[in-house]
Amino acid sequence: MSTQPEEHTMKHHKRPFAGYQAKTFLWQVSADGKIGTVTLNRPERKNPLTFDSYAELRDLFRSLVYATDIKVVVVTGAGGNFCSGGDVHEIIGPLTRMSMPELLDFTRMTGDLVKAMRACPQPIVAAVDGVCAGAGAMVALASDLRLGTPAARTAFLFTRVGLAGADMGACTLLPRMIGQGRASELLYTGRAMTAEEGADWGFFNALHESETLADAANKLAAQLAAGPTFAHGVTKKLLHQEWNMGVDEAIEAEAEAQAICMQTRDFHRAYEAFVAKQKPVFEGN
Q1: Is 276 exposed, middle or buried (0-12, 13-18, 19+ CB in 10 A)?
Q2: Which CDD domains does the protein's record reference (predicted)?
Q3: Average pLDDT over residues 222-243
Q4: What are phi and psi of 130, to 5 degrees?
């Protein structure tokens, strides 16, 4: 039986994202087409999220699974702040008037954003300056790597508005990142984690001055984009999945994953470059 229709269908789903037109945030693509940057762009309100921006971010990260060009995503905020969380007037107010089914639709949608960020194969670099609070803190946490500035203040402040610290996966992702005791303190008290604490505890991979943060994030993103991006996607997938595996199961999953990566052209390119005493040029296949 011919497989042509299936192959055509798979190719049909793949598409470039350089021309993507965002409605609720800024979307820019680097000159080489490999790095997509999401800029939350409501600086007068410290870049809060709305119902629409939650949904559009979720849909973008879901769709990036099919991107033919974007290898890395940078998420940042405009005007010296990352994100102040859900907009008080456009989200918090309306939530007080919703029914339980409507509330559950909303909380599932916000969780779906984190799921989409973890499921997309591209590494995500969060560039965090200033306020990083609530849902904004969760967007940073859901990213793969985080760069901050001395001015960064990260607060999982759900308890400040009478809610549980259990929001968008915080109770599972944050303890993995900084430890159970530190996560418990932040989630119970809602206090802001300083940039220095974030760096010491492993939340931030590095700190940079505000004026150099964008360059540092782009440099890191370019480094990742120049690597074996198919293999990066495998690494991301197993970093996420292995928390739910025993050691033996994880070792087997990695054996299977590495055998798949050994079939890629990038693996062969690396060997051929080594033999030729050259630097490998990876193409992500």
Answers
A1: exposed
A2: crotonase-like (cd06558)
A3: 96
A4: 65, -135
* Model pLDDT for residues 6-28, shown as the tens digit of each residue: 444 545 688 989 889 999 999 99
Positions of E strands within 83-152:
124-128, 131-133, 145-148
Token code pair at residue 81: 């702040």
The tokens describing 52, both together, are: 């629409």
Tokens of 207: 């700190």
Going by C-alpha positions, the residue among 183, 153, 154 that lies closest to residue 169 is 183
Ramachandran area for residue 4 (φ above 0: left; ψ -120 to 50: alpha; else beta): alpha
For 177-231, write each residue's pLDDT tens digit.
Answer: 999 999 999 999 999 999 999 999 999 999 999 999 999 999 999 999 999 999 9
Residue with tokens 């039986």: 1
**Burial (0-12, 13-18, 19+ Cβ within 10 Å), 36:** buried
Cβ burial of 238 (10 Å; 0-12, 13-18, 19+) is middle
- Nearest 5°: phi and psi at 141? -65, -35
